[in-house]
Amino acid sequence: MMLKSLLCTLALAAGFVSAAPSQLATRAPAQVITKCTVPNTAALTFDDGPYVYLYDVSKALIAAGAKGTFFFNGKNFGDCIYTVDQAKRVKYAFDKGHQVASHTWRHAHLTNLTSDQVHHEFWLVEEALMKITGAYPAFVRPPYGEYNDMVREVAGIRGQTIANWDFDSGDTWGIPTAQVNQRYTDIAKARPSTILTLNHDVHQQTAQVVVPHAIKTLQAAGYRLVTVAECLGMAPYQWVAAPQARDASWTCDGK
């Protein structure tokens, strides 16, 4: 499975990068990022989509002159990433200038899987993002933020940087939305040099209540709201080509 996913990656990348499996296998373990490095930046990131509330998040960000980062699953909340509606959401985020990245295929605990299984979890989302947007991601967020040496090795082989966070909004903790908003108010008052946030746009209250508050509060504190790649001074994608035409391979069946 590992070799198959690497060869598929290389096949789709033909004409854009030059690398052999032997070269990929010698890559160093992935770097693990938990903080932005560009002063006065804050990265609003969103896990577990694509989902219907992505549009609310994007519109709020764009209206404020900001960009966000969406870490997509292939098959988690909602439908398969390849359905017409889900693929439209992914492409919409990409076209609006937000960063799209991998949250792996089915939101599994990667540290419980074999190396080949982790490669497969990575590959299926990479393949989907390339087909839908034409972009091969340079960042991955492991589900639950969980990783070990093996996960870092797999990510490194695949050219991915692991991006976690240093501020959890708490929007999955079961606390009132007012408390989630207060967490943003408190972190803005503390005024660290940078903030790398964790949010989940699959929740209506996050998209429609928390995000507008976070944008207003962080910008009032002097932060520029940028993508993860921008807050690190790194490239968001390993390469970008033309998106592919929909065909019979745009399915989650058997994956």
Secondary structure category: alpha/beta
Q: Which residues form runs of ≥5 with pLDDT under 50?
A: 10-23
| Rg of Cα set | 17 Å
Distance between the termini: 12 Å
Q: Give the oligomeric state of the chains in this entry, treating copies of one chain as homo and distinct chains as hetero.
A: single chain
Strand content: 5-15%
Approximately how much helix is present in the residues? 40-55%
Q: Total number of β-strand segments?
A: 12
Strand order of the largest sheet: 9-10-2-11
- What is the number of helical segments per DSSP (H or I, 4+ residues)? 9
Mean pLDDT: 92
Tell me the overall shape: globular
* Strand and helix order: HHEEEHEHEHEEHEEHEHEHE
Largest sheet: 4 strands, parallel
Q: Can you characterise this structure?
A:
The protein has 255 residues and is of the alpha/beta class. The protein has helices at residues 2-13, 21-24, 54-63, 84-95, 115-133, 149-157, 177-190, 204-220, 228-232; strands at residues 32-33, 41-43, 45-47, 69-72, 99-102, 135-137, 139-140, 161-163, 167-168, 195-198, 224-226, 237-240. A four-stranded parallel beta sheet has the order 9-10-2-11. A three-stranded parallel beta sheet has the order 1-8-7, covered by helices on one side. Helix 5 (115-133) runs parallel beside helix 6 (149-157). The longest helix is centred in the middle third of the chain and has 19 residues, at 115-133. The chain starts with a helix and ends in a 15-residue tail after the last strand.
